[in-house]
Each structure stands twice: as C-alpha cells, then as structure tokens.
Amino acid sequence: MVADDSGRPRNRAAANPAARNRAARPALRAGILLLVSWGGLGPARLAVPAARAAEGPPAPASQVTPTRLRNALAQLDGLAADLMRRSGVPGMSVVVVHDDRVVYLRGFGVLEAGQPARVDGDTVFQLASLSKPIASTVVAAVVGDGRVGWDDPVLRTLPEARIGPPAIASSVTLRDLLSHRSGLPDHAGDHLEDIGFDRETILRRLRLIPIENRFRAVYNYTNFGFTAGAVAAARAAGQDWETLSAQRLYRPLGMARTTSRFSEWMAMANRARPHVPDGGRWVDRYQRDPQAQAPAGGVSSSARDLGQWLRLQLAGGRVDGRQLVAATALAETHRPQMISTPPKNPSQDHAGLYGLGWGVGYTNQGEVQLSHSGAFNLGAATAVYLLPEEKLGIVALTNAQPVGLPESLALSFLDLASRGAIQQDYLPTLNRVFQAMGSQDYPQVVAPAAPTPALAPQAYAGRYRNAYVGPIAVRHQEGQGLMLELGPAPLRFPLTHVSGHTFRYQPIGENSYGPSAVVFSIGSGGSAEAVRIDNLNLNGLGTFRRE
User: Fold this and answer.
1) In the chain, is it the N or the C terminus that has fewer CB atoms within a 10 Å radius of its CB?
2) What is the phi-psi region of residue 309: left when phi exceeds 0, alpha when psi lies from -120 to 50, beta otherwise?
C-alpha cells in the first residue's frame, strides 16, 4: 500500500456562472462512448466508457500482469498531480484495490481552496451519483436476505410511489427503477427538489408525470425513480433507507466515515468543500443537500471506506471471510438490464448498457468494465471503475464541479495496468463532454428589439397552482417590483420584465442554467389567468392557473 500523502494543485480559469445539472446524454468522442448524467445527476452524473469491438483474435484471459500493475501504481502520483495542475481542481482522493487488497490510497490537494488543510485517504467527499452502485449493493443485500425480490412491484411496499397509469404502475418493479427503464422522463422530480420539496412529496407526485409509451422501452436517468426503488426495498426490510444502509453495509464493512445522512456529512471535520469556477479560480460557494434523493445521490464517503466496498464488489460480496451480500444477488447488479445508448454503428460499436446502479461496458480487449460517475454541478465529481475479471478497481473523488478529472485518472490508470501505456489524453475529451452537457435545456429568454410595455403589476399578482408543483405566488411590493414565490418554504425570486407579459427569473440549484421565462396569459378581465414557468415546463407541468 502507498501511504497517505498529498499533491499540490493550482487553480485554473473555468468560466461557468450558473449552477447546472443535465439529463443523461450520450457522446461519442475519440473511441469512448460516454453516458453522463449530472445531479445526483448532476449529473448528477454517470460515465460509461464502451470501446469499439476488439479486432483480431480474443485477448488473453488476463491483461493486468504484475509488472504492468506495479508500473501503473508507480505512475499514479504523477498522473494525479498532472491532471490536478491542468484542471485546477482543489482536492482529490484515490483508492485502488487489486486481488482483495488495497494497493493504493492517497489524498491530493486541499479541502478548501486557499486554506491549508490537506486531503488524505480519510477525507469525506459527497459522492453524487456514485451513490447509485452503493445503493444497489444495499438492495442486493436485502434481496439476498430474502426480504424482497428484484421483480417485486414497488407498489407492494411503497404504494405512494405510483408511476404511470394504474395498468402500468402495478407492474413497475425494483428492477425497472434501478435500471432507469420505468418510463419516467430524464431527471423526473429533480426540479421539485431544487425548490425545497422533501422525498415523500416528490415520490407522491411522480404519478403526475406522463410516461407515454416509454415503460421498459426507453432508458431515462431518474434520481427519484431510482430512489423510489431503493426506498421500497428498505420498506420491505422494515427500516428507513438511511438506517438500512448503515446497518446492512457501512457498519459490517467497517466504513466508519460513510453516511447517507446529509446532517452527518456536514458534522464531519475532515470534509472536502464543494467548489465551482469563478473568474479563473475555484471557490467554495454552494452546498448541495441531496437528502431527498439519498439512495441516488446522497452518500458521503472516504477513499479508505470505498476501498472496502471495492473489495466486496470484486469478491462476490465476501470480505475477510464473511459473506456480507449474497453472491447471486450482487452479480445481478452487474448484469445488463437496459440499453442506455444504442450503438452509433452497430457493425463496429458496443451499445451502452446499464445494470442495477452500474454502467456495463467493455474494454478494447473485450473485458467487462463496470463504472459509474457522480457529478454535482454545485461542486463534486467522482468515478468508480471495475475490471471484475482482473479483480481490479479504482475510485477517484474530487471536490469540484465536473471537468472529467476522476474519469481521466481512472481510465489512464486502467490503460497502464491492462495495456502498459496510456492510450490517449482523456481530459480534453471528457472536459468537452461535460461542457456540452452544461447547455441550457429550457428555452433561453430573448428580448425583442422593441419590447412592449407590461400591464400594471396588480394584473399579474396573485396565487396560482398546479397539481405537480402546488401553489405559487406572484407578489407586488412598492419599490421591489414583482416577486415569484416557489416551493414549500417558499423561495422568493425577483421578476424582471422582458416584453409584454413575459418576465424572467434566475432559478437556483442543480438544474439551473441561465434565466427562465415566466409568461403570463391575460384573461378577458384584463388580469393574468395563468402563468407558464419555462424551466419547470420540460414535461408539460409548468403551467399554473390562477386560484
């Protein structure tokens, strides 16, 4: 094992003024098929490399030789330092497991930019969507215990989480939800979390989201669909999700610095602060609270703890002579359940595949490669990669908005370990993919060359409602203009006039980009009878009628 240590990163310019979160999108670049989701997606966010089909005769059974692995481990320090220097990311922690042993554990950089405290192997990071394969491990443990089955209907234990019309809802299973094939649209429910709704409310309102004909036909990455499946399994075990995770996985594995509770993460001293770019430097500005979607994006952990989890994954659920998770149940999480990305060229390319909380791909040598990334645009990026046949796994955790750093480090290391040389510079390719995912997914607000005046503020003020978001309000106060109120708290946003009956406001949270339009419909009496909020209208659920 390499002893804990730290590197020395430098900050670099990376302009991106708004906090953002993207739905899952495929991108083929330089031979890597990436399926990346932000949010808990962000990306919470998933990265699954799938290479071109191997040419020529089959590769030997083992590609990771002792010499290659030794050389790869010797180069990890330099690789990490170089990637941090190029990206400017403040802090990173890395663990490598091979043949049931932790063979590398090290921290680099600092907990917070501009502060002296260093990252080490015990620093706790928010994992974002790397939480999903951890959650599926917890569910596999419950399945192995015989308390629930992968094909049990979710409504059996979680009747409030109805998805689709009754004829479909009764058929939606844990397997459907943990493989993102329930028919829910990308990131369904995430906007409700952004404006302050809790888990129970969001799960109840999934029934209002149209699934059309997508059930088991389309892969759509959904944090709250995944959460519903995990919570249903916990309900079958007679516990809440946070308690089940700790009792069934974290404590038995000795993962003392791992939690599914945001409050416990915030209480930890050796905690990596989240960072976003601002004017050429990284700053600690936001704090993402993912408690509502804890199974999908709310785990916090250290590299040392995740080394224990890697050992469990690579040894069929067995650690230190104890079978903690049934091997058959754990293996099911690694089995492809859904095509996440059809091959661009079926004669040459592999399809992107998704298991139960795992991306399933293949190396150029034809070996199975399991992976998942996590990304909070508010300041976290993580990645895990496994070569099960080689009993080799790596986790990289960072405390900055995604730029492709953890994936680049992991892929470069696996190249060295399995092929003896890094096959390409992954960082520029992955950086472009993440930047492309930052494009706004709701209509941009464009002011006309000759704006028309608005009505008097009283024409727009009032209370509005729809079933999905619930009540909202538009209020007018002298000297402050119109204010939009959203969510249960509620949150207050100033409205800026654009033209006519169109205003704009700046959303917040993981799913926010630039300003969103707020468009009023005027009734025959001269006052607004309805209002449409574009960033909440991606699934047609953003129109509110006056009460």
Assistant:
1) C
2) alpha
DSSP line for 428-456: HHHHHHHHHHTS-SSPPP---SSPPPP--
The pLDDT, as a whole number, for residue 216 is: 97
DSSP state of 248: I
Q: How far is CA 220 from CA 224, 342, 436, in A?
A: 11, 13, 19
Which residue is associated with the tokens 């607004």?
Answer: 528
User: What would the CATH number be for the domain defined by 457-546?
Assistant: 2.40.128.600
- Give the residue, 426 or 343, on which the prediction is more confident: 426
Whether the pLDDT of residue 19 is over 50: the answer is: no
- Per-domain boundaries in the chain: 25-143+230-437, 457-546
Residue 39 has which token pair? 């949010």
Predicted local confidence at residue 58, as pLDDT:
56
**Residue (of 361, 418, 410) closest to 381 by Cα position:** 410
Amino acid at position 71, single letter = N
Confidence of residue 61 (pLDDT cuts 50, 70, 90): low
How does residue 410 score in pLDDT terms, banded at 50, 70 and 90?
very high
Please give the Cα distance from 462 to 453 (Å, whole number).
Answer: 20
Tell me the residue ranges of DSSP E strands in 449-499: 462-466, 470-477, 481-486, 491-494, 496-499
DSSP 8-class letter at 149: -
Residue-wise pLDDT for 352-390, tens only, equals: 999 999 999 999 888 999 999 999 999 999 999 999 999
Fold (topology level) of 25-143+230-437: Beta-lactamase (3.40.710)
d(CA 534, CA 378) in angstroms, rounded, equals 22
Q: What is the dihedral of CA 55, 354, 381, 298, to 10 degrees?
A: -160
Sequence-distant (≥ 6) Cβ neighbours of residue 383 within 8 angstroms: 47, 130, 371, 372, 373, 374, 395, 396, 406, 407, 409, 410
At 95-146, the pLDDT tens digits run 999 999 999 999 999 999 999 999 999 999 999 999 999 999 999 999 999 9
**Integer Rg of the chain from CA:** 23
Tell me if domain 25-143+230-437 and domain 457-546 are identical in fold: no
Closest CA to 226 of 273, 262, 174: 174
Q: Is the pTM of this model over 0.85?
A: yes
- Rounded to whole angstroms, how far apart are CA atoms 355 and 228? 17
* Nearest C-alpha neighbor of 435 from the set 131, 92, 87, 152: 87
Q: Are 295 and 235 in contact (CB under 8 A)?
A: no
pLDDT at residue 14 above 50? no
CA 430 to CA 381: how far, in whole Å? 12
Q: Which pLDDT score is estimated for 28?
A: 27
